[in-house]
Amino acid sequence: MIQQQGMERINVGIFAHVDAGKTTTTEHILYESGRIRALGSVDSGTAMTDSMEVERQRGISVRAALASFAWKGVQVNLVDTPGHVDFLSEVERSLRVMDCAVLILSAVEGVQAQSEMIWNALRKLGIPTLIFVNKMDRVGADPGAVLAQARTYLSGDIIPVQQPVGKEQEYTGASDLWQAGADAAARTELLEALAERDERLLELYMSGGSPDLAVWKKHLQAEAASGQMFPLVYGVAAKGLGITELLDAMIDYFPRAGGDAEQPVSGIVYNIQRDKSMGRMAFVRLYDGTIRNRDTVKNYSQNVEAKVTQIRKVEGGRTEDVGALEAGDIAVVYGLSGVQIGDVLGRPDAIPQEAKLAVPLLTVRVFWGTEFDDHKVIGALQELADEDPLLDAQWLQEERELHIKVMGPIQLEVLDSVMESRYGLKVTFGQPSVIYKETPSRAGEGFIAYTMPKPCWAILRFLIEPGPPGSGLVYESLVRSSDLLPQYQNETARRVPEALQQGLYGWEVTDLKVTLVEGNHHVWHTHPLDFAVATPMGIMDGLNRIGTTLLEPILQVRIVVPEENSGRVMNDLVQMRGTFEPPLLQGERMIIEGRLPLATSLDYPVTLSSYTKGRSTFTSFFAGYEECPPDVTAERIRRGVNPLDQAKYILSVRKALQG
C-alpha cells in the first residue's frame, strides 16, 4: 500500500491497561479498513501486530507495533503499544511520536491505575485523545459507572457522542447522537455538556429553537483536535461492533499530522529493531522535510552523517519499500549504522518534548552455563539494550558479572524467551533486587588539591546542596575562565554525573545541586586529563563530609478485593510500611488505594492472589523515590576503586587512562 504524495495523515497511538482488548481492537481496525484480509486473534497467537514468538505464546504485546492503512481518504499510521506495566518504556517511546491517541477502557474493569498514568502522560504532552469503551457485551458491563469513573479519575471534559443500545449480552451497538432520530434525552445531555463549556453555545442553546447540529459538531471537533475535550464511543472489538464508528471518530475528531516536506529534515528515531538480512531498523517519525533512498542524513545527536539505504513501511512481519519518507509520516529507515533510540535526525527544532514514565526499579544478575561463550551473551544483551536503553546492560570486568535493570518479572520471562529464540542462548536470572538511590543529607563542600605525583595540577572546590525530590542533578560553575580554562571546566562538568553514579552506599546520587565555587589549573603542570581524575575525588570528599540519605522507590497501588478480605489487606499494607486512603465499597468489592515501598511488596501480588483465591486485582505504578526510614540499610558493592582512597584511586585511573 504505497500512499499518494500529499495525502492527509494522522498518527494514532492505541493505549490501554492490560486486558482491555487493545490488540484485538487494532486487529479489527486493520480488518475493517481492508488492510488485512483475515482476522488474527490474540488468544490463538495470530494477531498481526504481535509478531514476536513470546507475544503469541503469552497473548500480551511486548513491542509497540506499527501498521498503516487508509480510511476515507486519510492515511493512518497506527501504533499498538503494550499494555503491561513492565513494557512501559515502549509506551513512553511511542507517546513521543503520536499526534493523537485512542485510550481503551474495559466496560467491566473501568479506569485502572495504568489507564490513569497513561492519561496523565497524554495530558502532559497535550495529545488529543478519544476514549473507546470496549467489552460492552460482557456480564457486569456498566457504561454509566465507567463514564463517572473516567470523569473523576481522568477528566471532566469526557463527552459521549454515542448512546449504547442494549445491555450486557443484549448489547447490539451504539447510536450516533449527531444523526437524525438519535435518543432525544442523550442528545440533550450532549448539547448541554457542550453549552456548559462555551458561552457562545450557551447563548445559542438558551435562545431555544432546533439546534443546527453541524455547528455544534464542528465545535466539538475543534475542541477535540486541540486536546480540550475528549469524545467517547462504545463497542465490542472482539465482535467487530463499533469499529467502523471508531475509525470514523478518528477521522472526525483527530488533527492531521503537520509538517512541511520542503523544510530541512527534522525527525526522531523512536524505536530500534533488527532485521536478519538488512541489519538495524530505525523507526523514524519525521516532523519536517523529506528523506529519500540514498540520501545522506545528519545524525544531530551523534554529530555524524549516515547514508540511507532503504525506506520501508513495516506491518507485522511484512515490509514494503516506499522510497521516501515525508514530513508527518512514520517509516523504517535502513543504513543508519550506530543509530540509537532518541537520536535526532537533521535539526531538533520541530521535535516535541518527551514524557518520562518508565523507571526501572529492579536490578538483576544474569547467569549462563559454561557451554555458552561470555562474549556472545554479553553481546546479545547489549544488542537488546540498544533496543531498550533502560536495560542498561553492564558487564563488571573484575567481578565477571553481567547486570541488567528491569521493570518487573514478566519482562524477565520475555527476555529469557528472546535470548533463546533469537540468539539460541539459555540464560537464567538471579533474584531481582531493588534499585535504591542516595541524596545529600545536608549542604556542604568537597575539596581536592590533586598536585601529586607530578606532573599534575588540578584544584577544585564544590558546593553540594540537597535539591527538591525528583529534581535529579543541577550543575553550575561560578569559576572565572581566567582561573580555570573553559576546556577544564567542560571536563569537570562532564565528569560530575559520572562521579555521582556511585555514592557512599554504592547507589546513584540524585536530587542535588552541585556548584563549582573554586577551580585552578597550572600553566605547566596541568595535564588535560587531571580534571577527569580530580572531579570524582572532590565530589566523594564532599559526600563523605556531609553524608547521604538512602532513597527507596515507592509505588502508587490500587487493590480491589472481596469485602471479606479487606481487613487483612489493610493489615498487610501497614506491615509493609504502606499508607492508604479510606477504602471504598463498590458492590461486594473493596477498593483500597495507597502507597507502598517496592522493597517490602515485591512478592505481595502473588500472596494476595493466593489468599483471595484469584478474586483480587493489584495494579501499581512508580510514584517516585522517598527517604528510607533510618532503620533501613542497603549497600551495593562498589565497582572499581573508591575515590575516597585517593592514592589507590589515582594509580588505578592513571593506568586506565593511559591504557
TrEMBL record:
Domain of life, per UniProt, equals Bacteria
Q: Which residues form a coiled coil?
A: none
State if Nucleotide-binding is listed as a keyword: yes
Query: Could you tell me the keywords of this UniProt record?
Result: Antibiotic resistance, GTP-binding, Nucleotide-binding, Protein biosynthesis
Q: Which Gene3D superfamilies match?
A: 3.30.230.10, 3.30.70.240, Elongation Factor G (Translational Gtpase), domain 3 (3.30.70.870), P-loop containing nucleotide triphosphate hydrolases (3.40.50.300), Translation factors (2.40.30.10)
> Start and end of every Tr-type G domain?
7-258
The record's annotation in PROSITE patterns points to: G_TR_1, G_TR_2
Describe its function. Abolishes the inhibitory effect of tetracyclin on protein synthesis by a non-covalent modification of the ribosomes.
Designated name of the protein: GTP-binding protein
